[in-house]
Amino acid sequence: MKYYVYSSRVSCIAKYFGNLAAAGIVSTLACSSAWAAPYDFRLLTSPGATGGMGRAVNIAGGVAGTSLSMNYEPLATSWSDGGGGNGGSVTILEHPAGLFGEAYGINASGVIAGTVSDVGGGSSRAAMWKNGSIKLLPEVSSQPLETVVGSLGRAIGDADWVVGATYFSTPHRGYLRATVWMGESAVDLGTLGGFSSLAQGINSAGAIVGWSETSDGRSRAALWRDGSIIDLGTMGGSLSEAFDVNDSGVIVGSSYTAGDTESHATIWINNLPYALESLGGTNSVAYSINNAGFAVGTSTNSEGWLRATLWNGFSVVDLNSLLTEDVTSSGWRLWGATSISDNKLITGHAYNEITGEYSAYILSPAKIPEPNTFLLVAVGVFGLLRVRKVVSFRLKRGSFLYPDTFLYSMSESTKEALIYSEPAKY
Q1: Closest Cα partner for 162 from 134, 201, 209?
Q2: Pair 221, 240: CB distance under 8 Å
């Protein structure tokens, strides 16, 4: 599998305009990475909560996430129309007695998926909230000597399919298996030859992404599609993980580069990995991509601080640079962006450097950055091939990689450093 660096250097090809025009092509290729700013930022709060985080947003402005009680217990929460205090509403979702919850996904109909568990996380169950009511999802059928000890929900599709994983225990070890719930059916999605796997994203066609262990016990970004599982490879290192897939089959996540000293947000196009540019630091991760190709996540900047990040085609921007002065002067910093809707609403988690508060937030789409200059060109096979040639020439190409030689084992410290909103439970 070849790997490439997805770079902003491909975005400005004005000097080729004469050749393209002569070829009679029309296209919309950005020649500038300038961004419009600022745009609307609203905190998503919950009564009596000490903080929270947004994990998923839909086109109606519904946000699913987690609030923290005064005792720092997680409570699955939904916000609508900007949340409480902004003319909208906030709802602490129903939990079984003695359990707490975390919401991870929301679909276009407002159906939410997540997990309920006890305080210590020793007992957990994948759950779905629909029309205000909770439904605990059914268990996967176990094999001899296997015992199902729990499950977790991570994302939900528009057909109400929920993806996540099931916890199994055997006399020798415990492990996690990627699972999809379709109505009353729970299906074990299998692995790349190892014990554990986790599903984290699903598109409208039912393609599912996440990670899976190989036969060597390490994990790789994985795609489950049409009854098979595909190893998505890495950017040259031994680590990769996929978080989301859009309806065109474009996948985002993170991957280590050669030497495993840096982890970069990664986009897989036709199952080929490209490294998205960072904000100057050595680590980044992309959590979500919409159907227009906008992706969001987290990146470290040159000073090592975590910053919410937006990738628009070949361009990258620190979302904090688009906040108004009154927001930044009050101490708020966007640490992570976890979801972007098709109409470009963004949610994630923010931290106040003055007060020490954590909060979920939502960004309005009105000022989402767009490239500000476009080249117009006409249609023609020769011209399209010319564009493809120019773009591919400008991409940095890596050496040929054999997928089975790059194996993955994501450390807990790495996950906690990069993925504040995804504390590992496995």
Answers
A1: 201
A2: yes
